[in-house]
Amino acid sequence: MLASNSLSYDVFVAPSKPFAAPPPRVGDPQAWDPVTSTLISGARDAVLVDALTTVPEATALADWITLHQRRLTTIYITHGHSDHFLGLPVLLDRFPDARAVATPATVAQMRSQTTPEALNIGDRARYPGQIADTIALAEPLEAEHFELEGHPLVVIETGHTDTVDTTSLHVPDLGLIASGDVAYNHCHMYVGATTADGRAEWIAALDKLAELNPAAVVTGHKDPTQGNPPTVLAESRGYIEYYGQLREQGLADQELFDAMVSRYPDWVSRQQFLLLGITGTADDPPGHSAIPPSDRPS
What we know:
- This protein is an alpha/beta fold.
- The chain is built from 9 helices and 14 strands.
- It starts with a strand and ends in a 22-residue tail after the last helix.
């Protein structure tokens, strides 16, 4: 746990987990990349950033939070990808005084991800018996910041990165950014669904975070053996730029995949769906839409 000015933070990393899907054409066996939750603690209270996915993950996270002996007041959800919020029912049951919040745009994305149809063809199909029976959504946060024991926690709107309407959370008194999926840490990034315009927006979001000159950046997905250095912002930027260069060359799927893995051989989660996107074939993860044909590698 790292501390400064009476605040501290700690990071829980849920390891990579297999999901139900046919074998991929390229890459590692189908598995979701490691996901993080960040606990920001004051003297008495704490705020959690993101809530993981499955009941077993969220249960382990709740036990870990309890060990910190703080009153959990707030759970902030960075964006509307379900792997960052489906654990909410478990956490809100364990910590009934906590309030789950997100920007109004993120709440709208959460709602679209959790219709019965979306869940049944998506996360419930990926993780049979592991998704909570009841679904909890965050409350819309209308302000640009909230507080932890008088310390501001600032919402940074980052727009379209690995999905639409993403955010990060900045804790100025710690020099900390909990980036959500704006940045990744030595973990292959979900670039397969991007377009050239989308990649430009994503790079602009990374530059926006870098301008804050953080001392630490906790990413939404990371290699569990890595720390939380601010260099992940530049590394993520370079990854997206290199991927864009390969896309412009019109490489076939296997060539594109191999080139990225060769450039980043030590990064975890060499997953087809991350690098090639959702192509509409049988080996896609359940519940995803295909990437635009106009931007798909030939």
